[in-house]
């Protein structure tokens, strides 16, 4: 073989290696999602139900799915103030109010979860949109000023709706917007 043929063979081998690594990571992502007990097929979005037994803060809670598995859920597209300092986020005065409001909405109730493109965040929490009967919880929290918009691609399905909801809360001085012109959570 000549020099150029050797180079071409090596490039093909390298390309195949990266293709195999990519495909294996896709399979791992699907298996991770399935291990949470939510999916039986790979089609997204998919829904599931959980009974909420503990609210951590205004955007995170624990639920038990119908398989009996405990699942920590982080609501997609929103950021609520922290009730206590955790990780790099500091306690915020409105955090207790936001947590209490989410408590009153979902604690000890069965809610429906819908998923977007990414199913887990970097902390291993299940990312979801939550519904109680006909109430879209993520939207309700933003629209009433208990949380602010925080979209992280690729989970952006309701971004434009959440922008409208936040503008509504801001213009009507609801929740956080009653106290702050531009709420920031450290």
Write the layout of secondary structure elements.
Elements: H1 3-35, E1 47-57, E2 60-65, E3 70-75, E4 78-79, H2 95-106, E5 110-114, E6 126-132, E7 135-136, H3 137-143, E8 148-149, H4 159-171, H5 176-179
Parallel strand pairs: 3-6
Antiparallel strand pairs: 1-2, 1-5, 2-3, 4-8, 5-6, 6-7
Helix pairs in contact: 3-4
Organism: Sphingobacterium anhuiense
InterPro entries: SNase_OB-fold_sf, Staphylococal_nuclease_OB-fold
Keywords: Endonuclease, Hydrolase, Nuclease
Key features of this structure:
two-stranded antiparallel ribbon, 22% strand, alpha+beta, 5-stranded mixed barrel, elongated, single chain, 186 residues
Give structural notes.
The structure is a single chain. This protein is an alpha+beta fold. It is 37% helix and 22% strand. The chain contains five helices and eight strands. The chain has helices at residues 3-35, 95-106, 137-143, 159-171, 176-179; strands at 47-57, 60-65, 70-75, 78-79, 110-114, 126-132, 135-136, 148-149. The strands form two sheets. A five-stranded mixed β-barrel has the order 1-2-3-6-5. It has a two-stranded antiparallel ribbon with strand order 4-8. A hairpin with a 4-residue loop joins β2 and β3. α3 (137-143) packs parallel to α4 (159-171). It comes from Sphingobacterium anhuiense. Residues 46-179 form the TNase-like domain. This is Thermonuclease family protein. Keywords: Endonuclease, Hydrolase, Nuclease.
């Amino acid at each position: 073989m000549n020099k150029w043929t050797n180079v071409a063979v090596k490039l093909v081998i390298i390309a195949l290696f990266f293709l195999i690594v990519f495909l294996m990571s896709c399979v791992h992502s699907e298996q991770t999602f399935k291990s949470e007990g939510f999916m039986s097929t790979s089609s997204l979005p998919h829904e599931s139900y959980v009974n909420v037994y503990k609210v951590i803060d205004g955007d995170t809670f624990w639920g038990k799915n119908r398989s009996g598995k405990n699942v920590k859920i982080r609501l997609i597209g929103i950021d609520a103030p922290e009730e206590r300092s955790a990780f790099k986020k500091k306690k915020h005065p409105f955090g207790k109010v936001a947590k209490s409001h989410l408590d009153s909405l979902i604690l000890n109730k069965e809610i429906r979860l819908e998923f977007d493109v990414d199913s887990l965040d970097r902390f291993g929490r299940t990312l979801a949109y939550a519904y109680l009967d006909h109430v879209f919880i993520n939207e309700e929290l933003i629209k009433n000023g208990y949380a602010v918009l925080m979209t992280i691609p690729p989970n952006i399905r309701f971004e434009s709706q959440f922008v409208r909801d936040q503008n509504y809360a801001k213009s009507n001085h609801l929740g956080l917007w009653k106290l702050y012109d531009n709420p920031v959570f450290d």
